[in-house]
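Entry for the shared binder. Reason: the reviewer on the internal report wants the predicted structure included alongside the sequence.
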Amino acid sequence: MAEIITMPRLSDTMEEGTVATWLKKVGDTIAEGDILAEIETDKATMEFESFNEGTLLHIGVQEGETAKVDSLLAIIGKKGEDISKLITASKTTSTLEPKKETASKEEESTINKPTSDIPEGVHIITMPRLSDTMTEGTVATWLKKVGDTVSEGDILAEIETDKATMEFESFNEGTLLFVGLKEGETALVDSVLAIIGPKGTDVADLAKNYSSAKAVASETQKKETPKVPEKTTVSNTEVKPVVNHSNGRIFVSPLAKKIAQEKGIQLAHVQGSGENGRIVKRDVENFVPSAQKQVSNETTAFVPKFIPSGEENFDEIKHSQMRKIIAKRLGESKFAAPHYYLGVEFDMENAIAFRKQFNSIPDTKISYNDMIVKACALALKKHPQVNSQWFDDKMRLNNHVHIGVAVAVEDGLVVPVVRFANEQSLPQIGAQVKDYAGRARKKKLTPQEMEGSTFTISNLGMFGIQEFTSIINQPNSAILSVGAIEAKPVVKDGIVVAGNTMKLTLACDHRTVDGATGAQFLLTLREYIENPVTMLV
C-alpha cells in the first residue's frame, strides 16, 4: 500500500520548507534509511531520511519549490501502483484550506490573535517533535530558568520522548520570560514550552491566548480536513551524525563546551551527533579517548526504605514516557500476535572453551551474549522467515539482519540495534553492545539507534534466570530469551559426567513462523553455539 510522505517539521519554528535537492527520482527503489532529499528550513538545510521502503512513485514538490509543513512531498509504494486517488485527495485538502476564511469572525480573531499580538522580538517556543513517533514530551530538566539570558545555540532543556532523553537547543536569543511546563510535566507536541524575548516584556496574556487559540485551531482543522481514502503516513526525520569542523571552527553547544573544559577533553577529538554535526552534551559525556567505555551489567533498581512494623505505606511513581510507550506496545504485541514458544537446552562446553581461548588474545574480550548475537545473525541468514516482519497487508522477508539487544534501564526496557550483525566480528559486536548498554542506562541513545530491528534477543542469564519467555518486539516475528549457563550432571556416551548447559526459548508469531520453521532455526543455532569455531569460517 502506498505511503504519503509529507513535508516534515525539522525545527520548532518551521512552517514551510524548500526542496533544495532531490537525491532520488521517480521510479527509484527506496530502502528504509535512504536520504530522499535535502530540505531547506528557516534555519538550515537538512537531509530528509525515508522511514519507508518501496518505489518512489510521485514527487509533490520540485527542486526549488516551497511547501507548507504536512503538504504532500512524495509517495512511496509498490512499482506500478495506482496513486491517483491519493494525489487527488491531497490536492482537495490543499484547496479546502482557504475555506477557513468562512469561519465566524469571533473564531477568526481568536485564532489569529496570538500571531498578530506577539510583541516585536518575542518568540514562542513550542514542544518539538524530536522523533518520528513522538506525540508528547516530558521536560526532564530545565537548564535555563526564567530571567536567564539565552543565546542562540544554548541548551534550554532536556526533553524526554518515547525513545530517549534529548537536548533541546534554542534557535533564538533574548531573556527567558516564561516556562510553560515544570520539570516532570508532559505536554503534546506544539504546546507552549517557553517564551523568549526582550527583558521585562509581559507575556502572561500572550501565553494564555496562544494556548487557547491552538485548541480552537485544532478543533477547526479536525472539522474541515477531509478523510483520505488510503492509509497515509506522516514522516519525519532525524539528522544523521556527521563531523562538521569548518575553517578551523568547531560547532559545539555551550553546555557541551563547558563540560569538555571541566573534564579536560579536546573538542577536536569529539564527533558530534547534533544538528549538522554539532557537538552536544551527550557526545562529551560519552567520549572515551582510546577505547570503548566499560559498562557494568547491573541496572538501576528501586531502593527499599525502612517502614515501622504495622504501618501501611506506599509511594506513587508517575509513569515516564518510556514506561507508557513500553506498556502500550507490549500490550499490542501480546494480544495481537499469536505467540507460541519453543524451548531448547544447549551444551555449552565448547562455547566456554572457545570464549576462554578467544579472550586470551591481548586487548580482546567477548561475552557469551556477543557469541549468541553473532550465532543468531548467521542462523537468520539461513532462515529468513524467522527474520521476517508482519504487517496488515503483507509479510516482509528481510535479507539484512539487524538484531535488537534488550537492555534493562530504570524506566523499563530499551532495544538498541546492532545493524548488519552477521557482517560484524565478535569483538565489533561486543564493543557496540557495551557502548549501547552504557548509553541506554543514561538515556543517551538516539532514536535511530533503537529503530529497524528484524529480530530481538533478551538475556536474563546474567541475573541467574535459568529459563523465561519474552513478548515479541513488533513488527518482528520472533524473540529469543537466553537463560543462565548452569553446571549440572549430563549424559554423554551413556555416562553421567559434569557438564554446562544453557536454556533458550524462542517466541514466534504463528502468523509468519510455523513450528517446523522455528525448530529448524534452533537446530542451526545449536550448530553455531555448540561448535562456535564455525562462526569464524
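Summary line for the report: Confidence is low (pLDDT under 50) at residues 95-116, 212-248, 290-301.
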